[in-house]
Fold these 2 entries.
Entry 1:
Amino acid sequence: MKRSVFCGVSLDGFLARPNDSFDFLFAGGAKPHDFEEFYASVDVVVLGRRTFEVVLKLGHMSLYGKKPVVVLSSHPLDFSTVKNAAVEQMSGEPTDIVKRLEARGFQHAYIDGGVTIQRFLAAGLVDRLTVTRVPVLIGAGIPLFGSVPGDITLRHVATRAYKDGLVQSEYEIGGGAEER
Ligand SMILES: NC(=O)c1ccc[n+]([C@@H]2O[C@H](COP(=O)([O-])OP(=O)(O)OC[C@H]3O[C@@H](n4cnc5c(N)ncnc54)[C@H](OP(=O)(O)O)[C@@H]3O)[C@@H](O)[C@H]2O)c1
């Protein structure tokens, strides 16, 4: 099963402000370029609990459509208020999550949420990373990247610059962290 990350960040690397607002991603009418095409290619969405809570609070769960959404948390979650989405919970090491999803026949997982992405990256379980950088510095917030147990080498696939100032870079990752 392929595992992909597709996210937007401020130029200084934040997924959201400290209060979870991500207004800066859409300033000036910018759009998450090529997201629809990417989303059409995935068959399961894996969300960190905090991202799930933000999406739920905004009433945006229906944006996932009919695709199964797996929310990761080590605590019991209440899905009773979730409408128009197929949601379930999993927890464990990223490698176990991947095995469980593969056993169910999923082909392409969309991994989302800062800490969640960081855990999958550290475990060598992200195959493709597409980051759209928005030309704004916000100074503080929820980071896309964090500490890594060793260097993670990426292969640059393509970078696209858009008229609205967004710069989207796509990388392939061959494996996990290498010892320094
Ligand atoms: N700009 C973008 O494209 C973008 C994309 C995604 C998210 N965001 C934003 O990023 C923020 C959330 O990111 P975040 O880094 O704070 O958190 P996150 O990754 O969404 O959620 C972290 C939580 O997920 C759970 N988790 C992750 N991996 C797990 C595993 N293997 N097993 C069990 N539980 C696991 C843990 O929940 P428990 O503590 O319950 O155990 C952990 O505390 C939000 O503001 C969201 O809106 C922005």
Note: The first strand starts at residue 2 and ends at 10.
Entry 2:
Amino acid sequence: MSVWDSLVGQDKAIAQLKEVLAAPKDLAQSWLICGAPGSGRSNLALAFAAALECPNGGDGTCPQCKAVLAGTHPDVSVLSTTTVGIDIDSVRRLVATSEQMPQMGRWRILLITDVDRMAERTTNVLLKEVEEPAANTIWLLCAPSAQSVLPTIRSRCRVLTLAVPTNPQVSDFLLKKYGKGSGFEPPLTDSQAHQAARLAQGHIGLASLYATHHEMVTSRREILEKLLRLVRASDAVLLADDILKIADDQAQQSVEERARRRQQDFRRDNGLGADETMPPRLLAQYRQLDKKADLKREQTRATRDVLDRFLNDISSLYRDVGVVQAGAIDQAGLVNLSLRDQVVALSLKLSGREVIDRLDAVETARRRLNGNGSPQLVFEALLTALVPPFRPKN
Ligand SMILES: [Zn+2]
């Protein structure tokens, strides 16, 4: 067993980190760990933190490893966000922690999971620390890509880039975790695992979600089928309404799941059973877990994440059309295998140029959404642009 066990398809990055761990004298103290969403960049950072604290280079079994992986190590602080941005006060607190000597391990490790979700003003608080970290301090900053981070931060870090895991790597992982013998009920079948891996396109978290929530695979398919049936601009407006409604529902479900988990963890940490009444001394703290304002911000962020995923689904459809037009199905494969016939039909209706315009329209929608555009307007405009051109037959 080792701390690297839970990572999928990251042998190269892990080999680089092991080399670093074998020669700790040259250890860089500021790291930028880059990987596409879902590639496991924050898990890799956490595993690296454990290996740094571990006296045996990351065996995954000693008290240091266990504490880091469980999130209870006093010298490893993780700053992550379930809302849209990282606020400046949390970063200031983290910087203050970085000056303290480690208590239990060899290093004081500060991990920020989405350093790209930081305003420039907030980033400035970090600059000096990342440039010249205190002795015994290590910064692990995670982001989707080096380009998504301000150059001032990027240039001060050693950059490590994760690979996008391949479909077979992802489906093997899913089968180990949810397949026969895993204890997951009902066990995931081979074909479900392959489908989940294909649809998730290298996103481990999403693949797990598809593997365990089949209704999400269904709603994804329904959205794309409706998209394929678009004829008029008025259809586009109706579909935008549908998409926003589904996104709200799915976001609410995931926020509720997370809130339930927080409450369970709180009970467990305080030695309380599921049905036990909360003692008055813990009540204030317990209510703090799910403040209305926080939940509302979480919901906003979760809805944006779902909408971003739908944009990926939509672009995967036009990607497939492009693959058919290029005659490259055998080499590149289709993401939307179950919609093959409709994809082939669409490939005959659109020119190559029109397919590229549609992929561009999806990226424009993504930019507008990230720039706080109204989801309703963004999706109405996008779907209207996706209506196939009307060409009267002669
Ligand atoms: Zn260990």
Note: The radius of gyration is 23 Å.
